[in-house]
Specification:
Layout lengths: L2 H10 L3 H15 L5 H14 L3 H14 L5 H17 L5 H9 L4 H23 L4
Length: 133
């Protein structure tokens, strides 16, 4: 763990419930049927939108460690869908959902994106609140 990440963890532990909640949600998100590249794309999309530079740095490194994405166009679709979920507070249009499914994702995956959005909104907001980002 980097010094920046360790400092952020220390700040978040001021609320053990918030820290524990994030850890549990993060573990659940990691167990979804979304592939690792797609999960990292969701996280990076939320982190970039919420301007959490700590999360962006950490998850860019995690994405790089995964190696090249087998299907970059699918990642573009999950990024676009994640942005639509954020912009609409989950009320994405039928066309947006259809485009996501046409890229090879499922309705289950759409709900998993919502889980990722919630998980990393918690993380990015908390990091920014405690000035860790």
């Amino acid at each position: 763990m980097s010094a920046r990440a360790a400092a952020a963890v220390a700040l978040l532990k001021e609320s053990p419930e918030t820290f524990d909640g994030f850890l549990k949600l993060s573990a659940i998100f990691e167990s979804t049927t979304l592939d690792p590249h797609s999960r990292e794309t969701v996280v990076l999309t939320v982190a970039e939108r919420n301007q959490c530079h700590l999360c962006v740095d950490m998850h860019e490194a995690k994405m790089a460690a995964l190696g090249p994405a087998p299907e970059p166009e699918r990642l573009a679709a999950v990024r676009t869908f994640t942005l639509r979920v954020l912009a609409s507070s989950g009320a994405v249009g039928d066309a947006d959902l259809a485009a996501f499914e046409e890229a090879g994702y499922t309705r289950r995956n759409a709900l998993e994106v919502v889980l990722g959005v919630g998980t990393y909104t918690l993380s990015t907001f908390a990091n920014r609140l405690v000035r860790a980002a």
